[in-house]
Write a structure and sequence with these properties.
331 residues; alpha+beta; five-stranded antiparallel β-sheet; four-stranded antiparallel β-sheet; globular
């Protein structure tokens, strides 16, 4: 399989986080809307049998990877550093792959440091207090619905309400890392499809202007560490039943309460069967490293995820970076 890295230039606030499995879902809808259902079904052949046509990462800061989900106690202690500050070090610079994993915690950066590096303060910003300190910040956005009979908001269904929006730090571009089967889809078509998604809008409230972005290919080699024996994931994945060594695998789980998007929201039941996933940054040790930089499995089909669209699948694969997990930092 081939790899592709896309630069994301965010053009609006977002209603949903840019996670790989959600992005894959919109990729499928974009392909269907552009080329028809037959084209999508052809690409999805073998998806749950270990043959995905494309696997999408979370949106990551350019030049960084998620910190592996190792307990902090397994890293050497960092003297003179507050534990709360250490826990904020969520992003690993790519340059740190040249160093042993035991030294990674000392190289990891907080979101404030990533933003400061990626988007230096403007000359007009006299104080650090005015600089953004997070890749995405949440802000409440008021909404209301007007009762056309009374011309007012009223109560009940017409009561004003607020929803949170995600605003990106100014000047900070993100990237998507994709692994794809070049025999079924090309890098150029993937780029066009993600531009389609960005022009229509991604995630919640895309219909009112949220989730806009532009993409362009980014020349970047796929990262890898010498002498690898484990995989660092770049998106949520489903590693269960894949033969990973439990004593040398570390991850944080969450439940994905999925919903259909696009035209499927009109089919009567937009909700999918919940699935258990491991967040990006999982450190997994399979019995042997995969030949392609992906790990996990395809979920769904045959009505397992959706009753209204039985062929629905869920991205349980994740792009991964091959890394070396030393014996001395594993329990």
């Amino acid at each position: 399989m081939d790899t592709l890295t896309l630069r994301l230039r965010l053009r609006s606030p977002f209603g949903s986080p840019l996670l790989g499995d959600t992005l894959f879902g919109q990729l499928c809808w974009a392909l269907r809307n552009r080329d028809g259902d037959a084209s999508l079904q052809e690409c999805l052949q073998g998806y749950t049998a270990g043959r995905p046509f494309a696997v999408v990462s979370d949106a990551l800061p350019i030049g960084y990877l998620p910190r592996p989900a190792l307990p902090l106690s397994l890293f050497p202690e960092l003297t003179g550093t507050d534990r709360k500050q250490i826990k904020k070090r969520r992003w690993l610079p790519l340059a740190a792959l040249e160093r042993p994993m035991t030294e990674w915690l000392g190289h990891c950066q907080s979101e404030a440091e990533v933003v400061a590096t990626s988007a230096p303060a403007k000359p007009t910003q006299a104080s650090a207090a005015h600089r953004p300190t997070a890749l995405m910040t949440l802000h409440p956005q008021p909404h209301n619905s007007i009762n056309r009979l009374t011309g007012t908001t009223g109560r009940g269904d017409f009561a004003p309400y607020t929803q949170m929006q995600r605003w990106s730090a100014e000047g900070v571009d993100l990237c998507l890392r994709l692994v794809f089967d070049a025999e079924r889809i090309s890098a150029d078509i993937l780029t066009e499809l993600f531009n389609d998604i960005g022009s229509v809008g991604f995630g919640r409230d895309a219909s009112i202007g949220l989730g806009k972005f532009e993409v362009e290919p980014l020349s970047a080699p796929w990262p890898c560490q010498p002498d690898p024996n484990a995989c660092l994931t770049l998106a949520p994945c489903a590693p269960q039943g894949q033969g990973c060594r439990a004593e040398r695998s570390f991850y944080e789980v969450f439940t994905r309460f999925g919903r259909h998007g696009d035209a499927a929201v009109q089919l009567g039941n937009p909700f999918k069967t919940p699935v258990l996933l491991a967040r990006a940054g999982a450190l997994l040790t399979p019995s042997s490293l995969p030949s392609d930089p992906i790990i996990g499995q395809g979920l769904g089909a045959n009505g397992q995820l959706s009753k209204v669209i039985p062929e629905t699948v869920q991205q349980g694969y994740a792009p991964c970076v091959a890394v070396h997990l030393p014996e001395e930092i594993a329990p």
